[in-house]
Amino acid sequence: MRTWLADRIRDLLWALLATVLWFVVKPLFRLRVSGREHLVRGGILVAPHRSYWDIVVLGVACGPFRRITFLARHGLLRNPLLGPLVLLFAVPIDREAFGVSDFRRSVAAARRARLVGIFPEGTTRPGARPKPGAVRFAELLGRPLIPVNLVPHGPYPPKRWGRIPVRFPRIEVRIGPPLTVDELSAELPAGLPRSDRYRLLTEWLMERVLRT
Known about the structure:
The protein is of the alpha/beta class. It has seven helices and nine strands.
C-alpha cells in the first residue's frame, strides 16, 4: 500500500512538472516529437546521452501521463538541482561497481514502472562506450526496447555564455517501434561468449537508436 501510494504521488508530481516544463522546453528547442504511439507500457526507452538536457527533453516528449523511471548515476544525488529529481523519478545506481543491491532496487522499480529510461553510455562524455544494462534488463524482465533518438539541428548541448545557455537548437525526438531482445538477436552468431553477445547486442541497439 505504501509503495502504491508513493508511486501515485510520483505520477502526480511528474504530471505537474512535465506540464510546466512543456511550456519552457517546447519554445526553447522548438521541439517536435514523432512516434508517441510506440510508447508501449513497460517499455525500456534507450537514447543517446549528450547533455543533461536529454533527460528533460525526453520526459517532456513522452508527456505528463507517461512517467519515466530513469536509471541514474548515484553521484547525481550530490547535485543540488538534480538530486531531488533523482530521488523522485530515478533509481540511483553505482554504474562503475554495479552490485547486488543496485540490481535488486533497479529490477523492483522497473517491474512497477510504466516506462524505464536508460542512457547506455552512462555519461555525457563523447566517445563513451555504451554499457549492456538496457539489453540485460529487457531480457530479464521480458520487456520491449524502445529506441529514441534526440536529433538536434544546431550545436548541442546549447551554446553557453559563461554558465548561461544562450543558443538552443531545434530538436526532433524520434521514437521508434519497440523491439524484443529476440528480434535484436536474430542475426547473432551462435556460440558467442556471454560478454561478446551482450556487447554486440548493445552495439546493434545503439545503431538502431541512431537510425531512428
